[in-house]
Amino acid sequence: MFGGGMPELPAENYPNKRNIPRMDFLVLFLFYLAFMLIGVVTICICSKTHCFKGLVRRGAQIISYIIPECLRRAMLRLLHYLFHTRNHTFVILHLILQGMVYTEYTWEIFGLCQELEFSLNYLFLPYLLLIVNLFFFALSCETNPGTITKANELLFLQVYEFDEGMFPKNVRCSTCDLRKPARSKHCSVCNRCVHRFDHHCVWVNNCIGAWNIRYFLFYLLTLTASAATMAVVSTVFLVQLVMVSDLYLETYINDFGHLQVVDTVFVVQYLFLTFPRIVFLLGFVVVLSFLLGSYLCFCLYLAATNQTTNEWYRGARAWCQHCPHVAWPPSAEPQVYRNIHSRGLWSNLREIFLPAVAHYERKKK
């Protein structure tokens, strides 16, 4: 063991004791990870352009000639079940992934960090965030998002002003046979109209609306924080391990038979060989923290400006109708959609976290 109760690496694992080839597959894996991230960001940015939609349509036509019809029908039925009907598939998948991550953290990282004399408060922080996250996850799943019914239809009609653009007056929902309040939308997955509809989230198997958007934001915040905390703990553990073992001072024999001082790339590759599951976990939570953090910032931007995802998307489509070639319009005021509901930062946040209609409904009951 290293001094002070540090975990000891076997002597045969030290890099100057054997010839370890440089791991080209790790570099390829990092390039693959970067490519996937760039692909996701590109799809998110270009998903509303006509060019991208045309490419998707042509790609679907080419695939339709390759895949047999019976397999295509089965895939369409599966996709319809997963994304167009209420089911618990993604809820279960969410819990399984979260359980796997925390199992690996508990099984390896927690014990090794204890040997390195990490603070227990520091190590237990991910568990505390997990408990809070599961609480808000349950609330996001089970809370009524603001379903519009015959009983509360008139009440919801008085909450928001109609803009006569995106939300005109005297429009009825053809499915629910209800007058549509401003900022509401019929969800085809849940088959109901939702007040201040944001989006339908498959991960919580529920619509996100006026009455549960605050729980969803806390859920997203704690999930991002737990992933980021686990990434920090894993990174600090690996860095501490390198420092106490003096790995950065070692030498190794490269592919040409020359003695070479260990550099940063080699240290990463060596840790990948020695602790593959921890390094994979670190890569996963880092990517997850980046994606969740980006989406959280987007949701906070919408909350601060009193917009919903539905309104932002429809407003972006209205803008793009003036620029089919993704070119900026020459005039200064070409937009069709104008946000008339923003009342300043604090008023917008108070509307999110203290929805007035929800309190009124509780008093009635």
Automatic annotation (TrEMBL):
Location(s), subcellular: Cell membrane; Endoplasmic reticulum membrane; Golgi apparatus membrane
Q: What is its EC number?
A: 2.3.1.225
According to the UniProt record, one GO cellular component term is:
plasma membrane
Give the main EC class: transferase
- Which key words are in the record? Acyltransferase, Cell membrane, Endoplasmic reticulum, Golgi apparatus, Lipoprotein, Membrane, Palmitate, Transferase, Transmembrane, Transmembrane helix
- Superkingdom of origin organism: Eukaryota
Quote the InterPro entries the UniProt record gives: Palmitoyltrfase_DHHC (IPR001594), PFA4/ZDH16/20/ERF2-like (IPR039859)
Q: Transmembrane region positions?
A: 25-47, 81-102, 122-141, 216-239, 278-304
List, alphabetically, the Pfam families matched. Answer: DHHC (PF01529)
Domain named Palmitoyltransferase DHHC: which ranges?
A: 172-314
Secretion signal span: none
Query: Mind listing the GO molecular function terms for this protein?
Result: protein-cysteine S-palmitoyltransferase activity
Q: Output the GO biological process annotations, alphabetical, semicolon-separated.
A: protein targeting to membrane
Which reaction is the catalytic activity of this chain? L-cysteinyl-[protein] + hexadecanoyl-CoA = S-hexadecanoyl-L-cysteinyl-[protein] + CoA
Q: According to Swiss-Prot or TrEMBL, what is its membrane topology? A: Multi-pass membrane protein
UniProt comment concerning the protein's domains: The DHHC domain is required for palmitoyltransferase activity.
Give the family, as the similarity comment puts it. Answer: Belongs to the DHHC palmitoyltransferase family.
- Can you say what this protein is called? Palmitoyltransferase
Q: Which organism is it from?
A: Sousa chinensis
